[in-house]
Design a protein that fits this description.
binds FE2/S2 (inorganic) cluster; three-stranded antiparallel β-sheet; about 70 residues; about 5% helix
């Protein structure tokens, strides 16, 4: 099932690993936490991979403190 943005264009399914930052996921996907519960649905989200976020599993920008 395709996901459309506000302009009615298809949002491609893409996973991007940012240097010294999060994994950014766009498209039509489902993210499940460690207890099997579906987390909120968005067309784009950033997953923390530095371990410093106070909003796990999502990136809150804390990686920028150590990335310099
Ligand atoms: S990757 Fe951004 S807070 Fe961890």
């Amino acid at each position: 099932m395709e996901l459309l943005n506000k302009e009615g264009e298809e949002v491609p399914n893409v996973v991007t690993i940012r240097p010294n930052g999060p994994v950014v996921i766009t498209g039509n996907f489902t993210i499940i936490d460690e207890e099997g519960k579906e987390l909120e649905k968005r067309e784009r989200l950033s997953v923390c991979r530095c371990g410093l976020s106070k909003n796990m599993p999502f990136c809150d920008g804390a990686h920028k403190v150590v990335a310099r």
